[in-house]
Amino acid sequence: MIEALHITKYFGENKVLDDVSFLFELGKTNLIIGQSGSGKTVLMKCLVGLLEPDEGDVIYDGRNFCKMGGFERRKLRQEIGMLFQGGALFDSFTVEQNVMFPLNMFTRMSPAEKIDRVNFCLERVNLEGRNKLMPSELSGGMIKRVAIARAISMNPKYLFCDEPNSGLDPITAGVIDELIEEITEEFRTTTVINTHDMNSVLMIGENIAFIHQGQIWWSGNRHQILHTTNQALNDFIFATELTRRIKA
């Protein structure tokens, strides 16, 4: 599990996160939701060390990430998988090379062991046999699945997903949601998902933090969110659903 404890973050005089505390649970899909500018992306960046909180701590299973030195952080990052918005594949690498990249960086596996691991991960995301394809030959959904395969190649304890359904049609987005949920349960990861997609919230939201004006205004699960009396959250749900229908 991951604990955010009293996280505060400033940009200049602007307080973007204000005393945020939340428990991201093991083996569950933990969603951070909120409108643009609410602070959800800044919170995720603080969790993975892309930004340093001005106050507070980030605890990975009892280990204080904020108090670690460079060597300790590098070691912990080997336990983290990251699915970036848009997939962020290397355009000049094949599917196989993209998935193998973390293995080359962080392990001493033999070439044969790396290939076995790549094939396992591609099979897990239903892309077996696509090793030699280039990113330019893939659909948007396939790019996300390759990115998931790369994210799980190191068998991470912690999986971070930044807007995993961005740019996808609703059917493909549902496939990605189901895949993330299955992997979370199968490998018992602590999965943290940054999203504004209400379909994702209602499909896989096991543990949800709603951020508004830099603070957590509501927390619960996908069943409880439909019955909330929190006005800011209801406004967010209504606006998100309205935008989705207009785009459809």
Can you characterise this structure?
It is built from eight helices and ten strands. The chain has 248 residues and is of the alpha/beta class. Strands 6-7-8-3-9-10 form a six-stranded mixed beta sheet. A four-stranded antiparallel beta sheet has the order 2-1-4-5, with helices on one face.
The CATH topology of the largest domain is given as: Rossmann fold
Low-confidence stretches: none
Rg, rounded, reads 18 Å
How many β-strand stretches?
A: 10
Query: What is the end-to-end distance?
Result: 37 Å
Following the backbone from N to C, one meets helices and strands in this order, namely EEEHEEHEHHHEHEHEEH
Describe the global form.
globular
Query: How is the largest sheet built, in terms of strand order?
Result: 6-7-8-3-9-10
Number of contiguous helices: 8
Main β-sheet description: 6 strands, mixed
CATH superfamily placement of the largest domain = P-loop containing nucleotide triphosphate hydrolases
Q: What structural class should be given to the helix and strand makeup?
A: alpha/beta
Topology, pairings included?
Layout: E1 2-11, E2 14-24, E3 29-33, H1 40-48, E4 55-60, E5 63-64, H2 70-77, E6 80-83, H3 95-106, H4 111-124, H5 140-151, E7 158-162, H6 170-187, E8 190-194, H7 198-204, E9 207-212, E10 215-220, H8 231-247
Parallel strand pairs: 3-8, 3-9, 6-7, 7-8
Antiparallel strand pairs: 1-2, 1-4, 4-5, 9-10
Helix pairs in contact: 3-4, 3-5, 4-5, 5-6, 6-7
